[in-house]
Amino acid sequence: xxxxxxxxxxxxxxxxxxxxxxxxxxxxxxxxxxxxxxxxxxxxxxxxxxxxxxxxxxxxxxxxxxxxxxxxxxxxxxxxxxxxxxxxxxxxxxxxxxxxxxxxxxxxxxxxxxxxxxxxxxxxxxxxxxxxxxxxxxxxxxxxxxxxxxxxxxxxxxxxxxxxxxxxxxxxxxxxxxxxxxxxxxxxxxxxxxxxxxxxxxxxxxxxxxxxxxxxxxxxxxxxxxxxxxxxxxxxxxxxxxxxxxxxxxxxxxxxxxxxxxxxxxxxxxxxxxxxxxxxxxxxxxxxxxxxxxxxxxxxxxxxxxxxxxxxxxxxxxxxx
Length: 321
Ligand SMILES: NC(=O)c1ccc[n+]([C@@H]2O[C@H](COP(=O)([O-])OP(=O)(O)OC[C@H]3O[C@@H](n4cnc5c(N)ncnc54)[C@H](OP(=O)(O)O)[C@@H]3O)[C@@H](O)[C@H]2O)c1
What we know:
CATH superfamily of the domain at 2-166 and 193-222 and 286-300: NAD(P)-binding Rossmann-like Domain
Radius of gyration: 19 Å
CATH topology of the domain at 2-166 and 193-222 and 286-300: Rossmann fold
Bound molecules: NADP nicotinamide-adenine-dinucleotide phosphate
């Protein structure tokens, strides 16, 4: 298949590009003119997303478009809307104007849905109730696609993605160098995770399966994790004895608030921000894996420690740690 990926120079996009190419697909990197070019020997197409002709040219001959470009953190709500909703509007208009069939796969987020209760995963058919401006912008982009897409589409909502190139989990790896894990508040919270290569495998199943058309799927590795387990696993692969520190919620609010304020002063969004804290403080983020299991036969073997080890080795090799 000829698969184009928007945002192909970012963490997820560059991993998808490599993985699709390694699986004998013709992967095409779509990046904007201002972007750092991905180090790739795949085809590169520079696209101006505000220019319909430029987008149509970039999509010519493409079978599947993975619309992955977007922002997970911004200083202003408007910037979030432009990156996630406005950009999707432009991509959708171009997809609808193409004279040939294309399958649009939209990389949304678990954040577009809602947090869950402990042991009570959320299903895809539940009405979205996002709690952050990031989640809202993704939910609105999803709605736009559901209501207006005239081609085959699939909406994929990944949970937290980790793997080589990711800067968010890097912060936790840095803490684990000292054998420390951090839990905010006394409650153990349950979350889902997915490694970026597992996400790439998931997308290939979606791309190959017409039963995935006009459907929404959560993408997880089908396991349930706690903050303590994640930190303990990272410490283990680093050969560190793990100690979990419980940070009171009031202290966390101050730390994340200061980080947010500093980010505004520097003019660059920070990983520790108040929206992130709202997500962390939710009871749980569990997605029901059943639909993906049944429709896509998605049932990956548990490989968390192995993939955490691989991620750690990558950070060390690239001198990120
Ligand atoms: N990371 C996660 O845990 C996670 C979880 C669930 C869903 N997602 C989704 O996965 C996608 C990729 O995330 P990521 O973690 O790989 O982020 P990333 O590393 O920041 O990459 C984002 C990519 O999107 C492009 N982009 C951002 N704003 C754009 C705009 N206004 N117009 C055109 N391109 C724009 C960036 O291009 P430039 O380099 O030119 O800015 C970059 O290529 C996002 O849609 C995100 O919502 C991520």
